[in-house]
Amino acid sequence: MIGRALALAGGLTGAVGASQFPEFSQQYMQRLGGTVDELARQIDRYEADAQAVDMTLDDYLRQLAAEGPLARTQAGNMAEDIARHVRLTEALTTLEGAGPFMRARLASYMGDREIAERAFEVFKPAVPATFEGAVFAGTGFFAGWLGLSLLFGFLARLWATARAPFRPRRTTRRGYG
Predict the structure, then answer these.
(1) Which of 1, 26, 69, 104 reaches 20 to 30 Å from 18, CA-CA?
(2) Do 34 and 126 contact (CB within 8 A), yes or no?
(3) Upper half-sphere CA count for residue 37 (Cβ side, 13 Å)
């Protein structure tokens, strides 16, 4: 009885949690787009600086890195910005136009920790009033309920197995006749 109640609570928790994915993924997408735009602006400035001294961006970064420890740090930061821009642009391109179900399938493209933390800071959970929210809620309920049911079933069998050597054995009478 307690196991069923806990499994139901797990299902409800899963429903509430999963139903928030469509809105959270939308917030993440907005943050991702803003980050890609800002990084593109910075890289445009880096490229303009390189062109001003008649160099490619790669040559500019190499020469900057050779000028000493402070410049090497700056060149490294610039290279990290460029690499992050490439990675996030790929994620944005992949996720653009994807609905909530496809974003769930492509969730690995939503892995930038800084963007996720910033999206979570402004995210406000809400009751889902869309078809997508209802489907995610149902999926979350089933996953939570099933997960806890399986866990409790496993623990019950483990407990029964552990107690078996300590149970008194039943003796049966055999009739002779």
Answers:
(1) 1
(2) no
(3) 6
